[in-house]
Amino acid sequence: MAELFQTELRDLTGSANTRRLRRSGNVPAILYGHGKENVSLSLESKQVQATIARREKLVQLEGAVTENALVKAVQWDALGSKVIHLDLTRVDEDETVEVTVVIVVKGTAPGLAAGGRVNRTIRRTLITCPVMKIPSEIELNLSTLELNGSLTLADVELPEGTQLVAALETVVATCTEIIVVEEPTLDEATDDAAEPELIGDTGDDDAGGDDAESSDRGSDDADAGGADGE
Prior knowledge:
Elements: E1 3-9, H1 15-23, E2 26-33, E3 36-44, H2 45-53, E4 58-63, E5 67-76, E6 83-90, E7 96-106, E8 116-120, E9 124-130, E10 137-141, E11 150-152, E12 156-157, E13 163-164, E14 171-177, H3 186-192, H4 202-229
Parallel strand pairs: 1-4, 2-6, 7-10
Antiparallel strand pairs: 1-3, 2-3, 4-5, 5-6, 7-9, 8-14, 9-13, 10-12, 11-14
């Protein structure tokens, strides 16, 4: 079911007019496609935020224009919390379109009970489907994900008429063992601490100094003895 958007024409463009439009509680949008002229529109902000939050793709435009359109691109504010611009492309009811949808997980992986953790490798994927049957999301059931196992796009549940664009062997989730690194205890840390290196031995140095002095004195004595001999 398409979301209904009330539209108004946006005659004034440019940064200043766009900021003024947003302050008034509206979102600027551009409608294009099917070889027709581009149309600048104004949409009610609260309705836009709610539609995007529900991940809806197809909208029905009424008011200034009456057409079905696909949300092609969304521009967010700097915080990523508020939609500030929409790109809309015209579509016919009998079209097949290519869109990106979110992959949500359900169920509990048996690998968790075996000491594992679930890792998501991708969270979105491209699909093709009839424009009037675009899913807001597709599901992956984790109930068969064992420890050291993986699930691929081939395991994703697809609505009727929906096909995947990416390769079926693309990994979506894995379950890997949690490796616990034990911290050393205080006693182990104390035992393993490096002892300070001794640079020489003070007692030996003193003894060596005494020996050197004795040797010097012995030489003096020998010299003296030599003098006596003379």
